[in-house]
């Protein structure tokens, strides 16, 4: 049952029109989809019986399950920022000049213990709360890479190499701040999709919190699904052995691992272990893997496109990729 | 409350229910680390709570609107306007996408990664290179993880001399008719899964099929092979006895 139907008893003309265009209500359609899916199950199972299809499905749902707690956490936090934290708090907490606000916001990423899926809705909420976009973007890029959970995971994955933790912290923060400044200089407001929150209009505090939460989880989650499908496709389509072929080449190896980070879309809490196992690659190449992964990857791209608009994502992701690779090379050159 | 919001609520109901089911039955271990179970459960419960509260709110809002409509025709306008504003443009509702993985999980329940993925990736022994090995426990034979055996066989073989070990894993056909005993190692989820491979020599059971789970008892051998994918060393085990086993509920090593 939908509101449309209930209102159908005596709807004003505009509403009748809207109802006609919508046809079936969302919830009825949902029920229909469930019934059809259950009936089509044997056919779907036959269709996905091959080892390749099974591997695709497993990686696809694994990314969704792995990311969902972080999407929930990030959305709860973003709802709290949107509803409970007054805009004046951020005006006071951050330096007034955007040039200074960028590094402060980037360093503040330390406090969000999660991976990249959680930071997207939070960065969106920060922008909606009047934080300068450059500063919010620095936070978006820095927090999944420099929070304590990720740094501890990195030190566990690289025992006896504290340099890797420091290099990751320095390179990630530097790349995030550079991107924030680049946005201040070159970014245009019209690339960002404005985020009005119509679902919050006219609601009192708790219903607004609930509505913001529901809205953010379904939005971030929906785009996560597209990204997970893309990552699973790349994961299954990647020819085995291509990595090994480029490992010996110093420049290509850095680029190869940076591309691998985009392709695999591994959670930033896990990527250090994968990097540690790529022993045939130089430390600089593995650093690039750790710096690029939390900032640009297949699922993150779709989530950013969903939160900030496609025009933003197609510019921001390649620029971030280039900056992250360049910063990794410089930091790697200094460190090793 | 507009249909869009109710749809989001029922999608979250499905997602939350699926996550709770996965965590409760342990099926989550097919896709993510075993330690994630309580986290997945919590996320599922939060989703269920958000969905339930949203639906309760929707029902209450509709009841108020109906009451207002019954009393005075224009009374429901406030709610209606609120909903219509949100529905403007009839944009595709992204929440629909969340239905896909949930139905895949509930209806198709994809299997944990096995020999198909293991064959496409190189053995991931490199990360164990700097491990400090603790002395093997007493007893004969001793049950050790495949990862532990492989790491010791390559980096610390002396400790294995004269010992018998019990290993389990699924089998993967290698080059020249060889069989590899294999486990997938994950640190977060199946997307970061990497295989650990140990070659079988000696009394290799006959009639093996790719992905069969077996348990072998045997001892260290200096024989090795080179992984064709990443050129890492694959150690071997000299098998004395072996038996087929059922796949464990937690197939990954984490």
Q: How would you portray this structure in words?
A:
- The complex is a heterodimer of chains A (336) and B (254).
- With 336 residues, chain A is an all-alpha fold.
- Chain A has helices spanning 3-7, 13-22, 26-39, 41-47, 51-83, 87-93, 98-108, 116-128, 133-146, 148-157, 162-186, 205-237, 242-246, 250-264, 271-277, 283-292, 298-308, 310-335.
- Chain A folds into two domains: 1-47, no CATH class; 59-335, no CATH class.
- In chain A, α9 runs antiparallel to α11, α16 packs antiparallel against α18 (310-335) and α17 crosses α18 (310-335).
- The longest helix of chain A is centred in the first third of the chain and has 33 residues, at 51-83.
- Mean pLDDT of chain A is 86; it is low at 1-22.
- Chain B has 254 residues and is of the alpha/beta class.
- Chain B folds into two domains: 3-108, no CATH class; 115-244, OB fold (Dihydrolipoamide Acetyltransferase, E2P), CATH 2.40.50.140.
- Chain B contains six helices and six strands.
- Chain B has a five-stranded mixed beta barrel.
- Chain B starts with a helix and ends in a 10-residue tail after the last strand.
């Amino acid at each position: 049952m939908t509101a449309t139907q209930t209102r159908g008893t005596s709807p004003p003309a505009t509403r009748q029109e809207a109802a006609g265009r919508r046809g079936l209500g969302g919830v009825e359609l949902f029920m229909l989809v469930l019934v059809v899916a259950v009936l089509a199950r044997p056919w779907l199972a036959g269709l996905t019986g091959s080892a390749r299809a099974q591997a695709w499905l497993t990686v696809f749902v694994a990314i969704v399950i792995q990311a969902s707690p972080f999407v929930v956490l990030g959305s709860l936090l973003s709802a709290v920022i949107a509803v409970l934290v007054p805009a004046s708090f951020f005006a006071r907490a951050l330096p007034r000049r955007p040039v200074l606000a960028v590094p402060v916001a980037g360093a503040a990423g330390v406090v969000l213990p999660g991976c990249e899926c959680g930071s997207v809705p939070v960065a969106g909420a920060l922008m909606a709360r009047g934080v300068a976009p450059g500063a919010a973007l620095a936070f978006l890029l820095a927090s999944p890479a420099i929070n304590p959970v990720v740094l501890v995971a990195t030190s566990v994955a690289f025992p006896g190499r504290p340099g890797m933790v420091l290099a990751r912290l320095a390179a990630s923060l530097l790349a995030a701040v550079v991107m924030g400044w680049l946005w201040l200089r070159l970014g245009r407001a019209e690339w960002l999709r404005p985020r009005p929150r119509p679902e919050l209009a006219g609601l009192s505090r708790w219903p607004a919190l609930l509505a913001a939460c529901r809205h953010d989880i379904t939005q971030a989650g929906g785009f996560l699904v597209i990204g997970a499908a893309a990552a699973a496709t790349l994961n299954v389509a990647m020819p085995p052995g291509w990595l090994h072929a480029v490992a010996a080449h110093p420049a290509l190896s850095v680029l190869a691992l940076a591309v691998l980070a985009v392709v695999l879309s591994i959670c930033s809490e896990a990527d250090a272990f994968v990097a540690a196992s790529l022993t045939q690659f130089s430390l600089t190449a593995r650093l690039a893997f750790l710096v690029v992964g939390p900032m640009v990857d297949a699922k993150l791209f779709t989530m950013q496109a969903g939160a900030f608009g496609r025009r933003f994502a197609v510019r921001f992701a390649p620029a971030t990729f280039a900056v992250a690779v360049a910063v990794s090379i410089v930091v790697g050159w200094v460190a090793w | 409350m507009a249909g869009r919001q109710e749809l989001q609520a029922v999608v979250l109901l499905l997602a939350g229910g699926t996550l709770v089911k996965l965590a409760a039955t342990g099926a989550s271990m097919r896709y993510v680390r075993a330690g994630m179970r309580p986290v997945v459960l919590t996320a599922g419960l939060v989703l269920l709570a958000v969905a339930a509260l949203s639906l309760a709110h929707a029902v209450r809002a509709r009841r108020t609107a109906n009451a207002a409509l019954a009393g005075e025709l224009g009374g429901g306008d406030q709610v209606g306007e609120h909903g219509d504003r949100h529905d403007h443009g009839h944009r595709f509702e992204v929440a629909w996408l969340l239905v896909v993985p949930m139905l895949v999980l509930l209806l198709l329940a994809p299997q944990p990664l096995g020999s198909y993925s293991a064959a496409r990736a190189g053995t991931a022994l490199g990360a164990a290179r700097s491990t400090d090995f603790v002395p093997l426990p007493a007893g004969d034979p001793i049950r050790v993880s495949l990862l532990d055996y492989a790491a010791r066989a390559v980096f610390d073989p002396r400790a294995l001399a004269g010992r018998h070990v019990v290993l389990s894993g699924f089998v993967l056909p290698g080059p020249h008719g060889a069989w590899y005993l294999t486990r997938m190692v994950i640190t977060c989820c199946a997307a970061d899964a990497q295989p650990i491979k140990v070659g079988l020599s000696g009394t290799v059971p006959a009639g093996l099929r790719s992905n069969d789970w077996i348990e072998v008892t045997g001892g260290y051998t200096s024989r090795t092979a080179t992984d064709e994918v990443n050129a890492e060393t694959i150690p071997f085990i000299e098998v004395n006895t072996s038996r087929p086993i059922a796949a464990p509920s937690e197939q990954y090593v984490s």
